[in-house]
Design a protein that fits this description.
heterodimer, A: alpha+beta, three-stranded antiparallel β-sheet, two-stranded antiparallel ribbon, globular, B: mainly alpha, 0% strand, elongated
Amino acid sequence: MKYLCLVYLEDEKLRAVPDRECAACGDGFRKSGLLVAAEALQPVETATTLRVRNGRVSITDGPFAETKEQLAGFYLIEARDLNDAIQTASKIPPAREGSVEIRPIRELDPR
Amino acid sequence: MVVTDPVHETVNAVYLSDSRRVLATLIRLLGDFDAAEEALHDAFRAALEQWPRDGVPANPRAWLVSAGRFKAIDAMRRRARFDPLDEAGAAAEIAAVDAPAWADAESIEDDRLRLIFTCCHPALAPDAQVALTLREVCGLTTEEIAQAFLTPAPTLAQRIVRAKAKIRDARIPYQVPAHAELAERLDAVLRVIYLVFNEGYAASSGAVLTRHDLSSEAIRLGRLLVELLPEPEAVGLLALMILHESRRAARTSSDGELILLDDQDRSLWDRGQIEEGARLVEQALSSGTAPARGSAAGERRRVGPYAIQAAIAAVHAEAPSSDATDWAEIVGLYDALARVDASPVIELNRAVGVAMRDGPAAGLMLIDVILARGDLLDYRLAHAARAELCRRLGRTADARASYERALALTRQGPERRFLERRLGELGN
């Protein structure tokens, strides 16, 4: 069984935990065979919301998911840049019904 | 430094004509807006020092790009020395790699398009697209943009900083969209330009009805876009803006009061602009049915909403008076517009055209259908148009109610006074 563990932080606490601590935790999990994937995210200001309606892709700034919408799944994708990521994300089927938030990964700084 | 120094004047002239092109290329070479802006300033500072001594180079733009690039690489290397683990060192090496393509004329022209498409990227907030375009493509200062949009300067500066951070962190690429995405992305660019134009043409709030600078900036942007990417809709938008602009002198009285199209002194319309606008409409409509650049053979690009709106403006512009306007043609064009871009506002404009063609009762019936459907109930121009038609039909009480509704919804000084005047003229 796999479990998704989601991390929530207030804006001003985004850097409260040192990156090296998170990196070490990830390394430990990986060595014990516990980890599938772990990434930190860029702040919410970098988010882009994608929807597909009637076959047309619409893009907006921000994480403006409807409050009725809940986190229903995730795809961790590899892309050259945001346009490339949009191309791939527009093929995710639930984009037709709800919205897909595209958020860039932040590389941990292990120092 | 003496201001009358001819070399100094040359530097100023080159700044005015070329600083945006140089910036656009530096952003591509350095991959970062802020670094490119800093490099641009360094390059012009170097020009002020070196050109008086060494003479003005044969190709000032290439000189500035090259100087800016070396200054930026220098700065990155200095930073790398202090902070050896920083990415700056690697970035400096990447930027220092000789890119023989950077100077060729075609990629430099493309840089300006890249800059426009990046500033108008749909992943940026609409407000930010407008601010960034005016700042980076037009070279307006943050203060100028803030003033034009009646926004506090710090708010506007913050908007620009956030947009640049998103471009960097979400990695919005510096590129002209691929053909498959071009139409949609071009729409976003056209929307930004038209928004800037409208903000200047009819400020949505405040005492001054026209803010000329923003309109001329939008037309300048429109011309640049047509020069770089002569798509039918880009040509259509340019035509539309120029045709609106041709009526500027007739739109307001000497004391700043609003004058409706029907009542305008048509001798004040700018004939030169009308001719240019009409020529562009022709171009947009004819290229709209020809195979578009880069499209598969036989594929025809549909005439879009900007070209059709421009055609409507051209019919008005070429009519000697309101009565002599070809209202049947206008209604037909609104039908065409509704087919490509159906909306209640277009329906309203069509209804006004029908009123002119078939009489106020016919138009009023159509407006009442729109309002009964619940559309445009908060749109001041729907109530103003209804009031106008009721007045012509002698339905004074209905006219009064609609003028009052329009008045309650308007935020613009001149428009408010116009409606008050009309109400006053109704009598009892």
